[in-house]
Amino acid sequence: MAAAPCGRGALPLVLVAIAAALLTYNALLSSRSGLLPLASSSSFPTATAAAASSRRFGAAGSAGRPRPFHTAVTASGSVYNTWQCRVMYHWFKEARRAPGGGEMGGFTRILHSGKPDEFVDEIPTFVADPLAEGDQGYIVLNRPWAFVQWIQKAYIKEEYILMAEPDHIIVKPIPNLSRDGRAAAFPFFYIEPEKNEKVLRKFFPEDKGPITKIDPIGNSPVIIEKGSLARIAPTWMNISIAMKKDPDADKAFGWVLEMYGYAVASAIHGVGNILHKDFMIQPPWDLEVGDAFIIHYTYGCDYDKEGKLTYAKIGAWRFDKRQYTEKPPPRNLPLPPDGLPNRIPQSVVTLVKMVNEATASIPNWDSYAAG
């Protein structure tokens, strides 16, 4: 996949730093959340043979009886997150009722604002508390804590979970891609454990094994057994908070810090991942939808009058979710002008058409977008 870069000492000293960090954030969290503290190194399960082979790319769909999974999306409650959730939930429902959608079970928006909003009757919602100590200017830090609360408190009848995000559009029905105790995940080119080994060893000690046990993933999209996620989630939360408090990790990982937190937690608990490059695409770098299940519209799509990509520079025609941080997008977003559609990637045109189809179907979108 062609892609643009994403803008995001001695062993005894390392062990002392780890011990100090664990004491600090375990004391901070256990007093308010009822969580188990992050386990000591000797308490973690060792990696299985299946986990050791986690870097296998390829298809591993369902076999035999259906294995339904529950789709969960975390959201802050901002206008920006909310309109994306509404669009995402529309396409989730379309995919679930389409042929092949039989393994797509329930859906939950995990709203980590601490209070319900006006859309709880439209979208199945679990209200989670934000971190009591605040997100330190990094709103995504609330995500692991929100998952911990949901797993501990909600009734989830499915035995598998798909962790997704508001800016995911489901293009076609998703089967349960996990297999043999391994999760199914998308490999991100910018998650580079080997490149960041020095920093990661603060959180993934050498006795856990080679740094290559950490897969190049985030928590989303991931399909995982519910029991595995229940073990991973508190560790993911604790490690993400510890990374945010660590100047070296915070500087190295930036906006993708909690993605590294999840990847490390998954490796610590011996949960391997089948890496699916076709799990999702990311326009404008992926030009075709192809066999993908999800369009992830995290990047801006800007083009000049000739249909040439002008990434990081506003183009003559554009779609960028960041245009709609304060107000939702209107219905009928403009498609590329006459003469350009064949020059602009099919993935981008499909993305805008699907946003338009969703907003046309969701009642009262015009008044909603008008604010």
Automatic annotation (TrEMBL):
Primary subcellular site in the record, as a coarse category: membrane
Q: Which residues cross the membrane?
A: none
For the keyword Glycosyltransferase, the answer is yes
Q: Which UniProt keywords apply?
A: Glycosyltransferase, Membrane, Transferase, Transmembrane, Transmembrane helix
Keyword Nucleotide-binding annotated: no
Single GO cellular component annotation? Answer: membrane
Q: What is this protein called?
A: Hydroxyproline O-arabinosyltransferase-like domain-containing protein
* Organism of derivation: Panicum virgatum
The taxonomic lineage of its organism, from the top, reads: Eukaryota, Viridiplantae, Streptophyta, Embryophyta, Tracheophyta
